[in-house]
Amino acid sequence: MGKTLFDKIWQKHVVAGEDGQVQLLYVDLHLVHEVTSPQPFESLRENHRTVRRPDLTFATMDHNVPTKNIFDIKDKMSKLQMKTLEKMLEIST
């Protein structure tokens, strides 16, 4: 039987390990958003590390943006999360 698309993509990204074992994968694209992404950026900063491939890291603010009047964010937590991601992106570049 042929390999699935998932299997083909997975196998192209294996760095170490055999089939049926734990495998180390190379992630070649990072998609981040405003809700949970600031925590890893903070961890990088605390450990004096940077994003290895900022050219392959793309951020979008898509969870907290209101569907009407997208520039009028009334929810304080949403606004804070968006500003935090913006700040973390400035620090990491």
TrEMBL record:
It comes from the Bacteria. The keyword Plastid does not apply. Residues 7-86 form the Aconitase/3-isopropylmalate dehydratase large subunit alpha/beta/alpha domain. It catalyses: (2R,3S)-3-isopropylmalate = (2S)-2-isopropylmalate; citrate = D-threo-isocitrate. Signal peptide: none annotated. Keywords: 4Fe-4S, Amino-acid biosynthesis, Branched-chain amino acid biosynthesis, Iron, Iron-sulfur, Leucine biosynthesis, Lyase, Metal-binding. Pathway: Amino-acid biosynthesis; L-leucine biosynthesis; L-leucine from 3-methyl-2-oxobutanoate: step 2/4. It holds the Pfam family Aconitase. Its cofactor is [4Fe-4S] cluster. The keyword Nucleotide-binding does not apply. Catalyzes the isomerization between 2-isopropylmalate and 3-isopropylmalate, via the formation of 2-isopropylmaleate. PANTHER family: 3-ISOPROPYLMALATE DEHYDRATASE, HOMOACONITASE, MITOCHONDRIAL-RELATED. This is Aconitase/3-isopropylmalate dehydratase large subunit alpha/beta/alpha domain-containing protein. It comes from Oenococcus alcoholitolerans.
